[in-house]
Write a structure and sequence with these properties.
alpha+beta; Alpha-Beta Plaits; three-stranded antiparallel β-sheet; about 25% helix; binds iron/sulfur cluster
């Protein structure tokens, strides 16, 4: 009997919370509809993934490695990003460049998203602005761990 009463009490409490959110949101939406400015806006349901919320320009999403004007990778394989990465999830394979001004380039650049914490240190550390995290890609899923080890030179 006591158990049944406790369940009923929690059910009623849950229904009261849902109703409160419903009426508060409806009030904000109605006020905004009539042009009344309010401190906060009513909650909006976004039909993800069909609809996508606009990301802030500062949002850190999937990395990309930039190219120079001649199409070669901008990365000079200095390993600063690899050194600074707290998750040790970057791997860069250096190769000799024919251009003596450049000397080295990244023949292979892989980020392991299984470990990346999206701190952005790699972007900050790069002396030639070769890596950025502004692709806006946040749907980073794979069926196996290996699928999240992404070669960035192909982007
Ligand atoms: S965002 Fe942070 S954790 Fe991810 S690769 Fe860059 S430095 Fe490493
Ligand atoms: S991305 Fe930048 S910091 Fe990382 S190895 Fe290339 S040049 Fe160096």
């Amino acid at each position: 009997m006591l158990k049944g009463w406790l369940v009923l009490k929690e059910l009623l409490r849950g229904a009261a919370i849902t109703a409160r959110h419903f009426f508060v949101n409806m009030t904000f939406h109605t006020l905004n509809l009539f042009g009344v400015r309010t401190k906060r806006r009513g909650a909006v349901t976004i039909q993800y993934p069909e609809e996508r919320k606009e990301l802030s320009p500062r949002h850190r999403s999937l990395h990309r490695v930039l190219s120079r004007e001649d199409g070669k990778p901008r990365c000079v394989a200095c390993m600063l990003c690899v050194t600074v990465c707290p998750s040790e999830c970057l791997s860069v394979e250096a190769a000799e460049d024919d251009d003596p001004e450049v000397q080295k380039y990244a023949a292979r650049f892989v980020v392991d998203l299984n470990r990346c914490c999206f701190c952005g240190f790699c972007v900050e550390a790069c002396p030639v602005d070769a890596i950025r995290m502004d692709t806006g890609e946040i749907r980073l899923t794979a069926e196996a761990r290996a699928g999240l080890e992404l070669p960035l030179e192909k982007r």
